[in-house]
Request: fold
Amino acid sequence: MSQRIVQVDAFTNEPFRGNPAAVCVLAEPAGEPWMTNVAREMNLSETAFLHPERDGWRLRWFTPVAEVALCGHATLASAHVLWEEGHVPADHPARFHTRSGLLSARRVDGWIELDFPSNAATPERPPDGLLDSLGLQSAVATARSRFDWLVEVDSAASVHALTPDFGRLARVDARGVIVTALSEDPAFDFVSRFFAPAVGVNEDPVTGSAHCTLTPWWASKLGRDEMTARQASARGGTVGVALRGDRVGLRGQAVTVMRAELIGDANSRGNT
Reply:
């Protein structure tokens, strides 16, 4: 028996922009070896696996080398697929049971809005080698969140110009590193890039979970709870953000670019 899989570009309304994620909607739980192999085969920053659970869906995210605790773009892609394929009625929210608690998604004026936990960063001195691995001599500020290091630099131009040493950056004790600055484009409030070689993703094109840290950081600095962010990767993507107490709203769009079938015994859920 084959298993359908869908590839979606998230945080964009154009194919081949934003951040691609694979989404696999299952009838029942799958084994970790099988999910790991599928994620490795897809070779995207994240592959999402869903199956029905209670009043929603169990959702897990895998990079080609590891399972992660929170992922925004693959959650947005998952909601898009659930609505597009009729698993969830178009006017109902999608609810996800995850390692980071209950997450939800709803449609708002042609966008998808995710309800995620805030993950504020606390100012902290950077570990040895962090700035050097980014090619930076100094930073405006550095801080540590539950998952990542945040590095604020002096300009958006500095964010764009980064050429990290990924081998050294992979040795930093964190899931990844967010580098951010005020935007020089009036259409956006701040820009960022996200590097996570420690979990097999040198640079993630658009990172929803990083904006759970960026949102409280820039809300405090700018005195605004609602902002528009740009992730300045080669593919690029736009994220609308809103700080709501200990939660963050992440707003984006999504485009399906491929539907395929995984050939093999999908019921075994073991090594393939």
User: Anything to note?
Assistant: The CA atoms of residues 190 and 197 lie 23 Å apart. The mean pLDDT is 95. The first strand starts at residue 3 and ends at 10. The domain at 3-116+253-262 is CATH 3.10.310.10 (Diaminopimelate Epimerase; Chain A, domain 1).
